[in-house]
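Margin note from the TA: students keep mixing up input and output lines. Inputs are the sequences; the output is the structure of the whole complex. Example:
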Amino acid sequence: MGRKLLLANDKVEGIRYYDVYRREGGYRSVEKALKSLTPDEVTEEVKKSGLRGRGGAGFPAGMKWSFLAKPEGVPRYLVVNADESEPGTFKDRYLMEFIPHLLIEGMIVSSYALGSNNSYIYIRGEYWWIVDILEQAINEAKNNGWLGNNILGTGYNLEIHVQRGAGAYICGEETALLESLEGKRGNPRIKPPFPAVKGLWGCPTVVNNVETISAVVPIINEGGDEYAKIGVGKSTGTKLISACGNINKPGVYEIDMTISVEEFIYSDEYCGGIKNGKRLKACIPGGSSVPILPANLLLKTAKGEQRMMNYEGLAEGGFATGTMMGSGGFIVLDEDQCVVKHTYTLARFYRHESCGQCSPCREGTGWMEKLLLRLEKGEGKTSDIDLLWDIQRKIEGNTICPLGDAAAWPVAAAIRHFRDEFEWHVTNAAEAQTRNYGLAHYADALEVVA
Amino acid sequence: MSEQQLFKVTIDNITVEVPAGTTILQAARQVGGDVAPPAMCYYTPLEGSGGKCRTCLVEVSKGSEKDPRPMPKLVASCRTTVMDGMEVKNITSPRVKDARAGVVEFLLLNHPLDCPVCDQAGECHLQDLGYQHGSDGTRYEFKRRTFSKHNLGNYIQLHMTRCILCYRCVFTADQVTGKRVHGVLDRGDHAEIATYIEKSLDNDFIGNVIDVCPVGALTDKTFRFKNRVWFTKPVDAHCNCTKCSGKVTLWQRGNEVLRVTARKDEWGEIKKTDDGKTGWICNECRFERKNINDWIIEGPTKVSRQSVISANHYETIDKPQDTLVEVMGGRQPKMLMDIHAISDVNQPGVKLSELPGPATGKTFNKNNQQ
């Protein structure tokens, strides 16, 4: 049984409300931070904890905080990125829906550390009911003196505002989010300058994921060093994984990053194995933009070791034989799933969500979608597969924001690992329309490269 | 700082010194020639433009003197400022060439390629780009995206099908006119430049969006289908305009003024006037003054670099100078014979203009002269 920090008391009746949350030990970190620590000491604790951004990129949060420019006479802002739109990721929704006060508490401590007097939650527009939950929680916190002017008599003021997005995936990119928050069209900005220097309304801003900010609460409660002891290597603390797909127990799980992928999929504590007794074919372990892996590479690395469920473990082998932790959207595909169709679905998503600002992403995503649809319908050519590879190669790294990469990686990985399935769609076009390629050899143990 | 700090930057092995804060693109333009990366969306007079088209991507092989690490990704040269000791690879980098060919292919993916009927043909930046950096064919086999044409007021027509979404016209309307009523709607490959609800663009300076458009998406309705640009003669002219500088380029056929545009430099960008004012021109100059008598002609416009309109008047043409001397290893060519001494014709002593009538064989007859 892994250690639980964020979801320790999520099953307590009424934890959504202030009274219960406070009774269960809530807002202790605010008392500790505001009364006994300076803002710099709070940042230092977060640095010591080794907490990495939980939004997908895995950038150390404490480092990000220390990059924040602090010019005189200019306000600083904390913006919480709750625009969780990655297909397969729904951990933030769980946090905000059931334990909204955890996020508020984390925000108070983080805002104190960063010196922000106005902090924002930019929430995905489709989460309309969670806005009400958050606003109720903010009101409760305010009525009990945790927000507003002169919090706990320390002279520190903070207001938290909730802003709804209007349904664009791109607004989860931090600079596009800031543009949208300013009331403009949600186009990513060209970096540099980074938000830490010029963010919201041209002021220094830190943008963090909901889970990152929530994790600040246990870090302050337990101390950064204690937090760093959980997990392995640079993957410290606990991570929320939202598991979905062909598994027996889909849902949000908190893991302490010491377990293996195999344990996560098959143990009853977590996913509980593949549904209907089928076999595992492939898995996207970190939300739709990270590379897909076939079963054999997912469970064992190319070196033949157990693949572990943490940042380094999943990235073992680079993109050639590994993948990424991403945002923790664990999507499992069983032997009945078609990788070509799956890739097409993702390509369609990225075509639809591209902001259209820079040309490789705007034009390339549409082209990939059309080619994949043709392949999926059995009308493709073998040369289309090479063309797809070339297109993704020309998108990746050449765009303003990471959406181009996010659109290119799933296609690249699918072709890299499942090329014969794509070819089968071309050579056996009629058959491909009536049945799936099945598991083929994707679960066979691989030859270990010494 | 009273004195401007100078940074040394090496682009394709050519070193230039530029003031701090200059972008890589501007530094490369100082070198000129092929070293300057193409730019489809960047426009110097427009603040915030650039970074979108990705044609100007370059490789930074050395970050700076202090931090010599190379940048991992290709960077947009129009929005990246130089550092002291930076080393940049443009045409010497295979990575850049490959990425740029990709960008050109992407830009042309949904472009209708209707150059034969497009008014921009001949001065189109996309034509130049495709010619210089593109491949000879396309690998795209699907239907191209199309839009219907829109009239944005009496003077401007928008043909969205040709648009490459450079955002220049949006920035122009924002910064020059102060009243923007058009922008980008939708997103991704179905994004379009549009007025919100079929509105006309009326503003004294809105005509400048035609000048900044790198392709034929925004065209001048007073010039549409009147003539091909390479048949028209550009001349510099000015008038006493109360709204703008009044300094323009007239595009004439005979004595007829077919089109009026702002003056552009060799990068296709609107030039500042000599007294340092911005060169944007007002709608009245652009659309109403089509009579030659409205203007004071200054002389032919010098068009240099790119585009077929410059075909007959290159400003910076490379003439074969001193090649004979070079071939002969530095020796001056020696006269072998003096043709006048031998031949009866072409005697320099005969003044043709002083003859009463046309010259005949007799005129050059030596005996006759003596």
